[in-house]
Amino acid sequence: MQTRRSLLKLAAGWTAGSYARIVGANRRVRLGLIGCGGRGLYDAGFMRQLADVEVAAACDVWLSLAEKARAWAGGEAAAIQDFRAVLARKDIDAVVVATPDHWHAAVTILACEAGKHVYVEKPLAHNISEGRAMVEAVRRTGRIVQVGTQHRSAPHLAEAAEIIRGGELGNVHFVRVWNFANMSPDGIGHAPDGNAPGDLDWNLYLGAAPEHAYNRLRHGPTFRWFRDYSGGLITDYGTHRFDTVHQIMNATAPLAVSASGGRYVLHDDGDQPDLIQATYEYPGFVLSYEGCVFSAHGLGGRTPGLNYYNARGEFDRPNGMAFYGTNGALFADRLMWEIYPDLKPAPWLAGPGELTHETRIARRTRQGADATRLHAQAFIEVLRDGRKCPCDVATGHASSTVAHLGNIALATGKKLHWDPGRQEFRGDAEANQLLGRPWRAPWAALFRS
Q1: How does pLDDT run across 89-147, given as a tens digit for each residue?
Q2: What H or E segment, with its residue span, contains residue 13?
Q3: 3-state class of 84 per DSSP?
Q4: Ramachandran region, residue 167 (left: φ > 0; alpha: ψ -120 to 50; beta: rest)
Q5: For the chain, how many helices (H) and strands (E)?
Q6: Phi, psi angle pair for 262, to nearest 5°
């Protein structure tokens, strides 16, 4: 196994040359895909729609997935089980990191030190300390790291930002974010521990996470329901919307957080809460986050003809954001926004004939679309022409941190006060212990100086 020192030496020889080749006259970009599940193929698929982009290596701890992705990539793509072999290849310009959350930090940091640029899926990291280490790695190496919070590339959400920042909604001091689904009664179900498939490197899958026997629920899409590998609904779905709240409200970090919740309905093998409500205090506004997996009705009512993200039935509205202003409210999700105006005030002692139904602003709607294609392809164009990254590592760390803060507040049962500059809680040693976690050997030694 390569040590951190050897990887730093590798990076020293690659930092300038790799970047020059990407942005120079030769516009060809060779990608390494690390994590070959559905999301990785989705991201990389959009990237390779652009001319002169190829997936040169497909890597997954489950070699069967890597082989399938290799066949999908075509050409001379290689199937690789250990991501370090991808980072050692001098012909790879950038990597797409679509692993479970607990691997984001190690792969991204080592990729930067090996001279690679990175597109990493959200949330940025498993915890706040790992996210901060990723930000520092980018500053140290000068690599480009774009985070897969594709809302940043959605034109309709940029319009929503203009509406609210321009004052059309009036003063906005309350924001809601919700992620709902109905997984009752069985959740992710139950599965016994057992033997891993023969071509799955289970020890490598665990990486820095605590040791645990193989269990099929801990691998694949259901990994998100285990604290060892993820932060649950709030990090998986909430991070996107926190990033949009920051974009629209021109905010970067809350100053205080409290949370309530637990496991009330689901009795599966997961250990994440099935309900979490977190309240964040920002300068000038309050944000309420609600995550619930035993009801799909995060907000009632829909406008006929509009498409809503993840809506399955006639009435459910499971994901979204609401911005409440003095002139009306703007509701938005990944696919749309709509404005519901407030009425102008009527005299307190008005008679029936004196009541007014005049609105303060106009009712408006806007149908948008999922922006993953735009966001993924923007990464290639950033490498080629140096344009501004739509969501850089610091921006992605800020939005991911909001989700982690909610989980820490729930774990402690306290109202916590956050210092964004120092990246720690004010006067709370217990909460600060939850900013990160010890890494399992041998990964614990990887980033020691």
Answers
A1: 999 999 999 999 999 999 999 999 999 999 999 999 999 999 999 999 999 999 999 99
A2: helix 4-23
A3: helix
A4: left
A5: 13, 17
A6: 155, -160
The two beta strands, 256-262 and 416-419, are: antiparallel
One-letter identity of residue 363: R
Beta strands of 35-171 (E only): which ranges?
53-59, 78-80, 94-97, 117-120, 145-147
Task: Give the pLDDT band of residue 341 (cuts 50, 70, 90).
Answer: very high
Q: What is the mean pLDDT of residues 386-415?
A: 97
291 close to 307: Cβ distance less than 8 angstroms: no
Phi and psi dihedrals of 63, rounded to 5?
-60, -30
Buried b or exposed e, range 188-227, using 16+ CB within 10 angstroms: beeeeeeebeeebebeebbbbbeeeebbebbbeebbbbbb
Please report, for residues 104, 177, 208, 260, 290, the alpha-carbon distance to residue 107 in angstroms, rounded to integers and kept in the order given: 6, 30, 11, 33, 31
C-alpha closest to that of 209 among 229, 188, 194? 229
The answer on pLDDT for 278 being more than 90 is yes
Q: Look up residue 167 and give its amino acid.
A: G
pTM for this predicted structure: 0.93
Angle between helix 4-23 and helix 104-113 axes, rounded to 10 deg: 70
Is there a cis peptide before residue 442, judged by omega within 30 degrees of 0?
yes
Distance CA 394, CA 391 (A): 8
How is residue 268 written in tokens? 């599966």
- pLDDT tens, position by position, 70-87: 999 999 999 999 999 999
pLDDT over threshold 80, residue 316:
yes
- Name the pLDDT band for 357 (thresholds 50, 70, 90): confident
- Encoded amino acid at 63, one letter: L
pLDDT digits (tens, 9 = 90+) for 144-156: 999 999 999 999 9
User: For position 255, what pLDDT does the model report?
Assistant: 98
Question: Which residue matches tokens 């999908």?
Answer: 72
Overall residue count recorded for the chain in this entry: 449
Edge-to-edge strands, sheet with 53-59: 78-80, 53-59, 29-34, 94-97, 117-120, 145-147
Two tokens, residue 335: 């696919």
**Residue 34 CA to chain centroid, in angstroms?**
17
The two beta strands, 336-341 and 364-367, are antiparallel
For residue 367, the SS3 value is strand
pLDDT digits (tens, 9 = 90+) for 31-57: 999 999 999 999 999 999 999 999 999
d(CA 94, CA 383): 9
Which residue ranges form the domains of the chain, and what is each CATH number?
Answer: 4-152+374-391+431-445 (3.40.50.720), 155-193+222-372+404-426 (3.30.360.10)
